[in-house]
Design brief:
Length: 207
């Protein structure tokens, strides 16, 4: 039987998909490249041709998750537009329909390990860079609708996402539940001030 030769992009995506399943079903520390090779039925050199280490592969998996999340949010914004929802309601939908952390808990927990701190920080930056512009577009729409008042939609989006992501992330500092709750309780009024939004516009963040 002739050996199947896949294009480099197809093979790389296949490896990422298999690694995503492995890291989600098994603790990252216990997952091995050998298990991945067995699943894919490929030689060791095939995987290491694309990824230099397990950490490198983890980073690729998280990048894939972020790209997938971006597509979901773009589709959700399109749906909100079709339903004629205003900007405040669109942001509420974007936040309350976010299941990235919930659905990929095991994978994202791996970022909290001390050896992955650089990958963690880099991927947080990637998340911000990818998603802030689509939030900025919603904020700009809200500005035109008279709901928000700001001359800096992108910077507001960056502050909003960076604040929520960083100061509630126990991977950077072991916040207690009380400390996280205190920060979350402050976010609605802070965002109202940032965007000059109507009172209560962001109360959904603590509901």
């Amino acid at each position: 039987m002739a050996r199947t030769v896949k294009k480099p992009d197809e093979r790389r995506e296949e490896i990422i998909e298999a690694a995503r399943d492995l890291f989600q079903s098994k603790e990252y520390d216990k997952a091995t490249m050998q298990q991945l090779m067995k699943t894919l039925k490929v030689a060791k050199g095939t995987i290491y041709h694309y990824f230099s280490s397990k950490e490198d592969l983890l980073e690729a998996v998280v990048e894939d998750l972020i790209d997938e999340e971006l597509k979901k949010k773009e589709a959700l914004i399109d749906d909100c537009r079709r339903r004629n929802l205003d900007a405040a309601e669109t942001i509420r939908m974007l936040a309350t329909k976010d299941r990235m952390a919930e659905e990929n808990e095991q994978i994202l927990d791996a970022l909290h390990q001390p050896g992955n701190i650089i990958v963690h920080a880099r991927q947080l930056g990637r998340y911000l860079t990818k998603l802030a512009p689509i939030y900025a577009a919603v904020i700009e729409t809200g500005r035109k609708e008279g709901i928000f008042e700001t001359e800096h939609p992108l910077e507001c989006a960056e502050f909003m996402l960076a604040g929520i992501q960083f100061v509630t992330d126990v991977g950077f500092y072991p916040w207690s539940d009380e400390e996280i709750a205190r920060r979350m309780a402050a976010f609605p009024s802070l965002l109202e001030d940032l965007l000059n939004a109507p009172e209560g516009a962001f109360d959904f963040l603590i509901e």
